[in-house]
Every structure is written in C-alpha cells, then in structure tokens.
Specification:
By secondary structure, this protein is mainly beta. The chain has 2 domains: 272 residues, Pectate Lyase C-like; 87 residues, no CATH class. It is built from 4 helices and 31 strands. Strands 1-2-5-9-12-15-18-21-24-27-31-29 form a 12-stranded mixed beta sheet, with helices on one face. Strands 4, 7, 8, 11, 14, 17, 20, 23, 26 and 30 form a 10-stranded mixed beta sheet that branches. The radius of gyration is 24 Å and the shape is globular.
Length: 414
C-alpha cells in the first residue's frame, strides 16, 4: 500500500535536527505552558490534580489542595529542582481535561514521572480524559516539517521515561488547518510505558489524518491498551535525535495483554513502520483495518538494519496468541527487502493460505516474496523477506544435573 495519507504523514523532510537542542535550547515552541512556574525546592514526589475542585492559582498540588490542570502539574514537574528518591507520581482525578478547563495542548512531558488516572474502564465521560489538540512544534522541528502540519494531545520527549495508567487520551473535537496536517493522540519521542489506557479516545470515525500513537525513535510499551486511529493505530519510524536519548534511536513497540482488552482498531493499518522499528506483540486483537501490519512508511533517515518483528516465537520471545482476523486486504503486508516476521501460535483468517477452519496453521509455513493472500502478502520486490507462521516448537525438557534422590548411607562397622 502506498496511499496518499502516507505521503502526508512526514511531509517534505530536509536535513536533520538534534532534538536535545530543540527541547533545552531557545527554539520557539507553542506547546502548553501555564505561565511562569516557581521551581519547587523540597524534593518533589507527588502532584494531585482535580479538574473540578482544583485550582492552578491557589492550589499547591497536594491531595487536599490539588491543581486544576494537568498542564500546571507537568510544568511544576518540568521545573522542579529536586525529585524524590522514588520519583514523581501525578494523580489525576476523574474529569475532562480540556481547553475549556484551562489545559494547553499538546501537554509535553520532558521529565520522568508516573501518571495515574481514575475510573478507567467506565469510558471517557466518567474516567480521566485528557481531551484536546495542539500544534506539535517539537516533531515539526525534528523532521523539518512545515509549520501547522503536526498536532497532538500528549507528548513524551527525551530524556523522559513516563509511566501512564488508567487514562484516556484523545480529542472529542479535532479541526486541522489543512488536508496536509496530521494528528496523533500521543507522540512518543522519549519512553512511554502504559497500562490499562486508551489512545485515540473520543475521535470521530469520519476524520482523515487522525491517528492513535506516533512512535518517533521512541519506545512504547503497552499492557492492555486500547488504541484507535482513523488512518493508523500505531505509526513508528526513525527520526534524527540526539544519542543522549534513553532509547537507542530505533523505534520500539511492545504490546501485551495482561488483563483487560488489548486492541488496535484503525481504518487503514493497525501498525505501520518504516522498516526500522522493533515490534513485539502478544495477545493483541488487530481489528477493522485494511492491514494489521505494514512496513510502508517512507524513511526519514537511512536505516541499514531492519527491525525485528515478533508476533510470536521470534527474537523477543513473544508467546503469540494474537488475533489476525478481519483485515479487508491482508493481515501482514511486507514491501521491503530482508524483512523477517515471526508469527507463531497466532490465529488467522480461517481457510486462507492453508490455515485450517479454526484459523490455525498446524505446521510451520514460511511465506516468501510473491506470497499473496488474506493472511500474508509479500510483494515480489521484497526479496529476502519472510513471514513464518505455525505452532511454536514444544520446549525440550532440560535434563536434571542433580541426583533424583539422596544416596543410601554407607553402613558402618560395629
């Protein structure tokens, strides 16, 4: 697939910019800032926010006197002179964290923290809903994209490593300035580890260029996340960043299913990469899209080594158990050379490409270039690329090195 929206996503890229200079330098940005923040002197360990009962002017961020906006809490975090030994946790009460409440988007986190929401599973209307859109000037400058071409709700930038749980992130109202502008609910350039959270929440299905999560040389780990996008659910690519980033500069995606639903729902493609990303998924449900996985993004920077794609039994030891059912075109589409995909112990469209009526491959099968079907397509020009399906090998028991029992005592003479 080489759809028009793919060319829109990363615009006309010229040259490279180190992200460290953008974040710590004096480059003009438009992301959310609540005004001057006095740095905290005592070690900061917790910040409480309540969009209904809190105040950004008289609040202190304590449990009894919370701030009103997440924007204020993140600004206090970013300006803190001292952090507690166990790090900082931002506690978000249930409510709508939107522009009408005083939020300024995108909310950019540049220091490590844990962010915890309330009432997850009840829906954005009664849970913690970070709900808004702002110009993503950081990403625009990283890739030298035109102004007013990238938008986001929430952004994690180096050197931050953020843990997020129980939060809905998205936008119930999105108005992009042009057909070339693109929105992602979350932009991960740093490191984000999320659990029981929803990305792309509240977005209307008819909007184009509206997506779930963009992983730009960052690292995304999601346990039981629900990710929604109209064009893509997760997009991952390598961008020029400083080597001081906590990630290696190669985008990384890890999806697991420890408890509640773990689903990606998109119209075009659930996961799309530029061929450089490492992708590991287990227990994931890929739904609704034309493609579950595709490597069709145009690279921004040359990448010599292909990413490792593990949907089961691969280098990252994924246990599989993914559902590849319902793609309108094909589940896995490979267009690049020397792309290797391991997808053992997964469930596929039944009675397609030798899958049985239960959607299982009872024997290992390796698809190569020229394969075409509902489950796997590898374009003829993608020489050296393979997709391996089938059952995972049965582990061989490790022989015991210790005696099975205690030796009988040697009789002694009397």
């Amino acid at each position: 697939m080489r759809s028009v929206w793919l060319s829109r996503l990363f615009f006309a890229v010229v040259g490279a910019t180190a992200i460290a200079g953008i974040i710590t330098g004096t480059a003009c940005t438009r992301w959310g800032q609540p005004g001057p923040i006095v740095p905290t002197l005592a070690p900061l360990s917790s910040i409480y926010v309540d969009p209904i009962n809190g105040s950004d002017t008289s609040g202190s961020g304590s449990v009894t006197n919370p701030y009103k906006t997440m924007t204020k809490a993140v600004a206090v975090l970013n300006a803190a002179k001292s952090i507690g030994q166990s790090g900082v946790t931002i506690f978000l009460a249930g409510g709508n964290y939107d522009a009408a409440n005083g939020e300024k988007f995108p909310i950019v986190v540049s220091r490590s923290a844990s962010i915890m929401g309330t009432n997850y599973g009840t829906g954005p209307a009664t849970g913690t809903f970070v709900n808004g859109v702002g110009q993503d000037t950081i990403f625009e400058r990283v890739v030298h994209a035109p102004e007013r071409s990238a938008y986001a709700t929430f952004e994690v930038v180096p050197p931050a490593s953020v843990t997020l749980s129980g939060v809905y992130v998205g936008a119930s109202k999105i108005e992009l300035p042009s057909s070339r502008a693109v929105y992602s609910s979350v932009d991960v350039i740093g490191t984000l580890s999320a659990s029981d959270s929803s990305f792309g929440a509240g977005i209307k299905s008819e909007l184009r260029n509206v997506n779930g999560v963009l992983v730009a040389s960052g690292s995304l780990t999601c346990g039981s996340c629900q990710i929604r996008g109209n064009d893509f659910g997760i997009g991952a690519l390598t961008v020029p960043i400083a080597t001081a980033s906590p990630s290696s500069g190669v985008p990384s995606i890890t999806l697991t299913h420890p408890n509640s639903d773990s689903t990606i729902v998109a119209k075009v493609v659930d996961i799309v990469t530029d061929g450089s990303a490492n992708v590991t998924a287990s227990g994931e449900a890929f739904e609704k899209a034309d493609y579950a996985f595709e490597d069709s993004l145009a690279p921004i920077v040359p990448v010599a080594t292909r990413g490792a794609i593990d949907f089961g039994g691969g280098a990252a030891s994924s246990p599989g158990a993914n559902d590849f059912i319902g793609a309108r075109v094909t589940e896995i589409s490979i267009g690049r050379r020397f792309e290797t995909v391991s997808a053992l112990d997964d469930t596929w469209n039944p009675s397609q490409q030798h899958a049985n009526r239960s959607g299982l491959y009872t024997r290992k099968k390796i698809f190569g270039s020229g394969a075409s079907g509902k489950n796997v397509t590898i374009h003829s020009g993608a020489s050296g690329s393979t997709v391996t399906v089938g059952p995972a090998p049965v582990p061989t028991p490790t022989p015991s090195t210790s005696p099975s029992g205690s030796p009988a005592p040697t009789p002694t003479a009397t």
